Amino acid sequence: YGSHMHLYVRSMVSPVFELLKIYEKEGYLTIQPWLRVTLLTIDERQFNPNINIEFRNQAAAQTDCLLQYKESASFIAFVDLDDVLIPRMAANYLDEFAHLFHSMPNVAYIHYMKENTRLEAGKDPTKFSLKRMLSTIKFQQVSETGKMVANPLYLNHTWIHHPHRIKDGTDRYTVPNHLNAITHLKHIELVQDGSPTKRSSAPVYKPNTPYGLTDQPLLSERDIDELQLDFERMSRKPEVARLFPFLPTNFIYLKTIAQCYEDTYYKFHYSGNVKQLKCPGPDRCVFPRRIPCYNSMAKFHSTTGGYYLNFHYATEESFREENGCLP
């Protein structure tokens, strides 16, 4: 649909990272190391600043992205990896966003709600079919807090879901979910056979809305076929095929981190018990080990001469393969 992805990566299972690096070379995306806060002036066992940084400082990553592309991109969408925004009011992202923004010139950003879905995906990469996976998407009629698409001319910062302040004279527009919403791949069931079937068809768009929608497709079968053909083109590359036997066949870290976030943050957040809330982030979680991972690395620096203020910064950012993903 005419986009480029910019991924901020703290750590990633090795074969997945190596696969994404191939897609990066093909021009689909850019991978940027996203570093832990590291202070050389005090041992992390005495004081770990990352414990009190919300969701790996996702707001800072999104603001960094906004500023990087501020003068080169017409629009910037901030979504999670399990969020799929499919243009339904136009044939591509540029036309859909332009239609919305140009009809409301004072809007600084538009907000798409999330609609939770269930779907199936094949465990075996050699039999995986993107077409079959997309055909199994079923909406659950459950909405969640959405994500934003920004006009970078009007914003200089943002937060995870939206900026808390915008320039005087500008506004926000929430897209009604009967028109479009983010397809949130909330519940993915891994199945043994993910190969295509003759019955594969376009999924139906059924968001949580009082409007009586007809059985309109989430995306057209033509678009699904194009996505499948591109997936097959990439799969035929020897460097991609070489990685297939090593790709994970289960969610190694997802269950552990999801349960950790539930225990430390979400159950208190949704129950209104805010006094028990802890700052949400992976440093409160116990990560599985003995799994090859690429972790973001850098050369860290700390100044020590300031009485009131010292600077901590990094240079030479990169990735290093290690035994286990770091939070």
From TrEMBL:
The keyword Lipid metabolism does not apply. It is found in: Membrane. Keywords: Glycosyltransferase, Membrane, Transferase, Transmembrane, Transmembrane helix. Pfam families: Glyco_transf_92. The keyword Nucleotide-binding does not apply. GO terms for molecular function: glycosyltransferase activity. One of its GO terms (cellular component) is membrane. Its EC number is 2.4.1.-. Its main location: membrane. InterPro entries: Glyco_transf_92 (IPR008166), GTase_92 (IPR052012). It is a single-pass membrane protein. Belongs to the glycosyltransferase 92 family. PANTHER family: GLYCOSYLTRANSFERASE FAMILY 92 PROTEIN, GLYCOSYLTRANSFERASE FAMILY 92 PROTEIN F13G3.3. This is Glycosyltransferase family 92 protein.
